[in-house]
UniProtKB/TrEMBL annotation:
Key words of the record: Cell cycle, Cell division, Cell membrane, Cell shape, Cell wall biogenesis/degradation, Glycosyltransferase, Membrane, Peptidoglycan synthesis, Transferase
Catalytic reaction annotation: Mur2Ac(oyl-L-Ala-gamma-D-Glu-L-Lys-D-Ala-D-Ala)-di-trans,octa-cis-undecaprenyl diphosphate + UDP-N-acetyl-alpha-D-glucosamine = beta-D-GlcNAc-(1->4)-Mur2Ac(oyl-L-Ala-gamma-D-Glu-L-Lys-D-Ala-D-Ala)-di-trans,octa-cis-undecaprenyl diphosphate + UDP + H(+)
Gene3D superfamilies in the record: Glycogen Phosphorylase B
One BP term from GO: peptidoglycan biosynthetic process
Function summary: Cell wall formation. Catalyzes the transfer of a GlcNAc subunit on undecaprenyl-pyrophosphoryl-MurNAc-pentapeptide (lipid intermediate I) to form undecaprenyl-pyrophosphoryl-MurNAc-(pentapeptide)GlcNAc (lipid intermediate II).
Keyword Cell division: yes
Domain of life assignment: Bacteria
Protein name, per record: UDP-N-acetylglucosamine--N-acetylmuramyl-(pentapeptide) pyrophosphoryl-undecaprenol N-acetylglucosamine transferase
Main location: membrane
Subcellular location: Cell membrane
Domain Glycosyl transferase family 28 C-terminal span(s) in chain numbering: 188-350
GO MF term list: undecaprenyldiphospho-muramoylpentapeptide beta-N-acetylglucosaminyltransferase activity
Class of the enzyme per the UniProt entry, highest EC level: transferase
Length: 363
């Protein structure tokens, strides 16, 4: 199989793509993969490190408000579609897979104009602008949340879950939390606000840190590099506590998460795919700054199933974080019920399902 994969801008689009590629290469060692992204997106750093062939196109996203910048965006879209077509013709793929982000628009659209089968994958419960646009051109549509299927044509939409679920479920790395000087005998709470961090979560953590000291559970916190420097004095003061570890960024987040007992985080689709694949109860703080408030919808899906509690960004405080953590840890029945609900939400064969959708396009 020769496949072009595209998607970028954030880890939420890139990591599911890489997870699927990893699975594809395991079961089809001869598969040839080309990844198309942008120079400025996160994919430009992550994809080459994964040892994949990587090409870039010059494209930018539309502004949601009326802006003169959108005129430039339209011209760039036309130019980038032509760039994408040239790359596609040179590589001659059997199929093209898009995992979201504005970079995937000219690639999927260009492939459809060249009569090459295409699949798009929507991770969130509410589709973004790019996938809504591409849905009319894609051969098949895969969704990570059942709710997202309501936004696409029924006849070509398939529920697959998120490929990160299958990838992270296979991880077993007990030594990961030992690297933080943490005990394997204590409950571990993992807290983070995304790869770049979140100001409101950092502010709440500054309030919470003195109260975490001496607890019978341990806390690992990733602040984001920008915020670590902003709150460095406070973080370094409490980082020496035996039950608290604070880092700006955790490189092996998947391994650390596989050892966590509770997750406190934003409600990005990839994070939720990971936490449910592991059956971890979660306390979700949806970002109010994302398109169509999709993180709230993502979080509500898990809350409805009983797998998560929600703290809104507006009501977030250090005391609220501690109260919800201890509410779960102090109630064994609640913890077990949330864990069971979480694992029920996980889709542990998501890459298998996505490959089946791709193979249907190739039949």
């Amino acid at each position: 199989m020769r496949i072009i994969v595209t998607g970028g801008g954030t880890g939420g689009h890139v990591y599911p793509a890489l997870a699927f590629i990893s699975y594809l290469k395991k079961i089809t060692p001869g598969a040839e993969v080309l990844y198309i992204g942008t120079e400025k997106g996160l994919e430009s750093k992550i994809v080459p490190k994964a040892g994949l062939s990587f090409e870039t196109i010059d494209v930018q996203g539309l502004k949601r408000s009326m802006s003169p910048q959108n005129i430039k965006t339209i011209f760039k879209f036309i130019k980038s579609t032509n760039q994408a077509k040239k790359i596609i013709k040179d590589f001659s793929p059997d199929i093209v897979l898009g995992t979201g982000g504005y970079v995937s628009a000219p690639v999927i659209y260009g492939a459809s104009r060249l009569n090459i089968p295409t699949v798009i994958h929507e991770q969130n419960s509410i589709p973004g602008m790019t996938n809504k646009f591409l849905s009319r051109f894609a051969t098949k549509i895969a969704v990570g949340f059942q709710e997202a299927a309501n936004y696409f044509p029924e006849e070509k939409t398939h529920f697959t879950g998120n490929p990160r679920s299958q990838e992270i479920a296979d991880i077993d790395a007990e030594e990961a939390i030992s690297e933080f000087g943490m005990s394997l005998d204590k409950k571990t709470v993992l807290i983070f606000g995304g790869s770049r961090g979140a100001l409101k979560i950092n502010q709440a953590m500054v309030e919470a840190l003195p109260k975490f000291v001496g607890k019978n559970y341990q806390v690992i916190y990733a602040s984001g590099e920008i915020y670590y420097n902003e709150f460095k004095e406070v973080f370094e003061k409490y980082n020496i506590e035996p039950n608290i570890a604070i880092r700006s960024y955790i490189e092996n987040m998947s391994e650390v998460m596989s050892n966590a007992d509770i997750l406190v985080s934003r409600a990005g689709a990839t994070t939720l795919a990971e936490v449910t694949s592991l059956g971890i109860p979660s306390i979700l703080i949806p970002s109010p700054y994302v398109t169509a408030d999709h993180q709230t919808k993502n979080a509500e899906a898990l809350k409805k199933s009983g797998a998560a509690l929600i703290i809104t960004d507006a009501e977030l405080t250090g005391d609220k974080i501690i109260k919800q953590i201890e509410r779960i840890l102090d109630d064994g029945k609640m913890y077990r019920n949330m864990s069971d609900a979480s694992i029920r939400e996980g889709v542990l064969d998501s890459s298998v399902r996505l490959l089946k959708v791709i193979n249907r396009c190739l039949e």
